[in-house]
Amino acid sequence: MSHSPAALSCPLDLAHGPQWPNRWTLAPLTNKQSHADGTLSDDEYAWLVARARGGFGLVMTCAAYVSPEGQAWAGQLGISDDRHDDGLRRLADGIRDAGAVSSIQLHHGGMRADAEVTGRPTVAPWADATRGVEELSTADVHRVIDDFVRAAVRAERAGFDGVEVHGAHGYVLCQFLDARKNHRTDEFGGSAENRSRALREVTRGIRAATGADFQVGVRVSPEGYGVSIDDATTLVSQLLASGDADYVDLSMWDVAKAPRDTSLDGLLIERFMDLPRHGTRLGVAGKILSAQDAAWCLEQGADFVTVGTAAIIHHDFPRRVADAHDFVSEPQPFPRARLEAEHVGPVFIDYLADNWDDFVA
To answer: 61 — phi, psi (to 5°)?
Structure first.
């Protein structure tokens, strides 16, 4: 296959579930648009369905909390309770009707949950008295694993094509991976094998509890958060070989970056592209802002690209690339009206304005 931008329009088969119509996936972007109880809002529905309409092959929700104590911010989507079901069903139907494959990202904040929002104690792989964080007991770890699995079953029942397990960005499953701080003495701490056990058991549990047509993805940080590149490549190798994951999504922040470890040559992406895949798909995310950026990722060996910023700016980014192989997303910042025209709701626009200096004019 040539890796001109035209290759991005080629369908992608996975071991389970529906074929993706192309190589474009929508990043699971925090948008804070859900109702206070975690139920779906009209603005969140409109944001996601517009991206399905705009040509993204896989449309993924923001991180959705699987346990009430795992909620990390106000306005976060929930998948922990029966009250969430109607909105999830509506969303799955809307994404499918607009032509995309649907996924919900499963999340637990752990140390980064917000007790003021949850009204519950914050729990994590280790205690931090200064922050009021309690250590999960071994039984609690198994309960959190079960909460991820139950959430996946809930997603399948609601009509989603799959889920993505959030094992990145320093949330609970990534916290277990942290070699600096996870000194647990049970089977979930200490060695690299033990530190990755919670993430691998979640993935295995979801695969076992869902049907043959249900897709399971995993998001991983390839470095940082107390995870060395060696540990990350070992984990990704295990996930690719396990048969439990249909795809692994590497959240790189910048696909063209060098490793933070300055003793390593080359680019970070090169550390992962040659790993044996065993039929599992491997994708990358981070500063993919043009047709050429995305095509370059396929040239490096990625099976798909995950797009965040450019998908906020252009709900139809994949379609624009298909129409013009030199397409580059417009430079920031943007007036609010321009973002509203892309089906970005007022709460989401406020979040972008508060967290990125140059996004909203």
So the answer is: -75, 170
CATH architecture assigned to 5-330: Alpha-Beta Barrel (3.20)
Q: Per-residue pLDDT for 1 more than 50?
A: no
Query: DSSP assignment of 19-62, as one string?
Result: PBSSSEEE-------S-TTSPPPHHHHHHHHHHHHTT-SEEEEE
- Told to judge if 247 belongs to the known catalytic residues of this protein, a careful annotator would answer no
- Identify which of 52, 168, 45 has the alpha carbon closest to the alpha carbon of residue 106: 168
Going by C-alpha positions, the residue among 281, 331, 343 that lies closest to residue 306 is 281
DSSP state string for 169-193: TTSHHHHHT-TTT---SSTTSSSHH
- pTM higher than 0.85 for the full model? yes
Summarize pLDDT for 73-87 with one digit per residue, the tens. 999 999 999 999 999
Largest alpha-carbon pair distance within the chain? 56
Instruction: Considering the candidates 45, 65, 171, 351, report the single residue annotated as catalytic.
Output: 171
Mean pLDDT of 3-19: 95
- Quote the strand ranges of 27-170, DSSP E: 58-65, 101-107, 122-124, 133-135, 162-167
Which of 254-276 are b and which e, b meaning 16 or more Cβ less than 10 Å from the residue's Cβ?
ebeeebeeeeeeebbbebbbebe
Q: How far apart are CA 56 and CA 28, in angstroms?
A: 13
* Residue 201 buriedness (CB in 10 A; 0-12 / 13-18 / 19+): buried
